[in-house]
Amino acid sequence: MDLTPALDAELTGSRPRVDREAQALVGSRCSVCNTPSWPARAVCNRCGSAALRTEVFAGSGVLITHTTAHVPLAGLAAPYMLGQVQLDANGPLVFGLIEGLPPDADVPRSVRTVVSAEGAVPPYRFHDR
Amino acid sequence: MIDEVEVIGVGMHPFGRFSDSSLKDLARVATVQALTDAGIGTRDIDVVYSSNAMGGMLQGQEMVRGQAVMREVGIERIPIVNVENACAGGSTALRQAILEIAAGAAEIVLAVGFEKMFVNDRTRTLDALQSAADVDVVRGAGLQFTAVYGMRLRKMLAEGTIRGEDLVEVSVKSHACGALNPYAQHQKEVTPEEVRAAPMIADPLTLLMTSSICDGAAAVVVARRGALKVDRPRVRFRSSRGASGFTPLPEGQPTLSEQNVTAAYEAAGLGPGDVDVAEVHDAMAPAELLAYEQLGFCEKGGAGALLAAGTTSITGAKPVNPSGGLSSRGHPVGATGLAQIAELTWQLRGEAGARQVGNEPRIALAHNSGGWLEGESAANNIHILERIDSWT
Ligand SMILES: [Zn+2]
Which candidate from A71, A76, A83 shows the least CB-CB separation from B201? Predict the structure, then answer.
């Protein structure tokens, strides 16, 4: 397996992570085994191939589980909701802030990606579909 | 070979809040206890594996932590290897100590873990804990370990494999064990009402279900069989397995703990039915229920029934976390994995006092996890120990 393309991979800080227009996450997908990753990687975690391409993932996904944290963190007031989202169209499983849902919201349920303002942290969150 | 490696000494500094004690003070007590237990001195140690997770961010000792701390007890010159693997650091240090002996490179090795999480400002501790993840990926996303477990448990609740009351009952059990353990941070029994009424930390986890910020240290001395004359029940290793986290595959796969324990059982030629006592990684008491399934102690969906039957209590047929576990004994991150081994060694020798399990255990299992890679723990170690001598 030819690993050398990984030598010339774009620097991690230069790889796009979100697409503001599409309101979606941007990562990589393996050209050999089709495994997605967010953020993008240089080598596939599943098959070891360095043949990865950039992909704009679906702007929608399924919230699999969530929790409401009641302890504030620096820069984040409590309570706030966190969840795991399986992005549609065979996208990656991602983790992030969930906004606009009640603490007892049923899962699984559809959510959509909302890209944050330029330079904001975190760069995305999820809202109810 | 792994089964030629024995535990010859264990020691702990009590877990809790020790504002006046430094990392050196914590490690000193655990180390001296373990060496005394082994009947040896500092000059008998060939190598040290030192585990600490947060001393860089919280105490400013980013480098050479082990060397700095071991000076206090006069251990120098020999190799001192610094190990960091988040909450699994202690068992990672232990595994390296075992491998060093199995490789024939040393006769007697000390694994020591120490952590001081109480500092003047709790947000610094929470910040440091957030670094047990890929900060490039989760920065600003509000990661807390209570939330990680909250998400795992909510999924089980939604699937109907556990009930809300199971979370309460397992927390009551944890505190009842901690109440019997003089080394525990939380030594007070709690009622189901108190657990339910405690402040919510990360839904469905309340304060009395979670481990807290904690100071403490633990130490384990391991040796090649025959390196020392021992006049007490001997304990050896049957398995020592390490593994790291992975990105979950879309079609699903066994969890990190399941994969690693399967390999550990296979290496030992044992199965879950052979385990007489276990210390499992319950950073939140209800994670003990997850562990029942992952370690094969019950079928999927059977955790609540196993708990309710009393099987995993101190007097049951398969006691789990007789020490009180991470939730009640306390969870000073880098020391936890070694505290588990100390507890299991005491249990296998019959030296655990009021919390001694009643089934004359022969096989013990330690399950220690650390960190988080958005879906799985970042590190996991399984150790299986065996009491060599019969109980009679
Ligand atoms: Zn691939």
Answer: A71
pTM tops 0.90, yes or no:
yes
Residue B259's SS3 state is helix
* B128 falls within a domain: no
- For helices B164-178 and B287-294, angle between their N-to-C axes, nearest 10 degrees: 100
CB atoms within 10 A of CB B102: 18
Task: Say what the pLDDT of residue A129 is.
Answer: 87
Domain that holds residue B65: 2-122+213-224
- Among the partner residues A65, A86, A92, nearest to B155 by beta-carbon distance: A65
Catalytic residue among B87, B177, B214, B298: B87
Q: What is the complex's ipTM, to 2 decimals?
A: 0.92
How far apart CA B388 and CA B232 sit, in angstroms, is 11
Domain of B95, CATH number, reads 3.40.47.10
User: Do B94 and B63 belong to one domain?
Assistant: yes
Per DSSP, A42 falls in state S
pLDDT band per the 50, 70, 90 thresholds, residue B139: confident
B298 belongs to the catalytic site? no
Range of the domain at A13: 4-56
| Domain tally, chain A | 2
In this structure, is residue B392 part of a structural domain?
no
- Across residues B58-62, what is the average pLDDT? 98
pLDDT tens digits for range A33-61:
999 999 999 999 999 999 999 999 999 99
Residues 6+ apart with CB under 8 A from B41: B35
What gap in Å lies between CA A92 and CA B118, rounded to an integer?
Answer: 37
Phi and psi angles of residue B247, each rounded to the nearest 5 degrees, phi first = -80, 120
| Chain B contact probe: residue of A28, A46, A67, A106 with most B CBs at under 10 A | A67
Say yes or no: A23 and A72 in one domain.
no
Peptide bond between residue A79 and the one before it cis (omega within 30 degrees of 0) = yes
- Per the CB < 8 A criterion, the answer to whether B326 and B281 are in contact is yes
Amino acid at B216: G
Separation between Cα atoms, residue A25 and residue A63, nearest integer Å = 15
A89 and A124 within one domain: yes
pLDDT band at B209 (very low <50, low <70, confident <90, very high): very high
